[in-house]
Amino acid sequence: MLKGRHLIEPSEFSIDELEEIFGLADSIIQKPEDYSEICKNKLLASLFYEPSTRTKFSFDAAMLRLGGEVIGFSDPNTSSVAKGETLKDTIITISNYVDIVVVRHPQEGTAKLMAKYALVPVINAGDGGHQHPTQTLTDLLTIRHYKKSLNNHCIAVCGDLKFGRTIHSLVKAMHRYQDVKFIFISPEELKIPRYIKDLLEPGSYFETTNLDKVIGKADILYMSRVQRERFVSEYEYLRLKDYFILTPEKMLRAKDDMIVMHPLPRVNEIAEEVDSDKRAVYFHQAKFGMYVRMALIVKLLGLE
Ligand code: CP
Question: Which structural domains are found in the chain, ordered by start?
Answer without folding.
Answer: 10-132+289-301 (3.40.50.1370), 134-285 (3.40.50.1370)
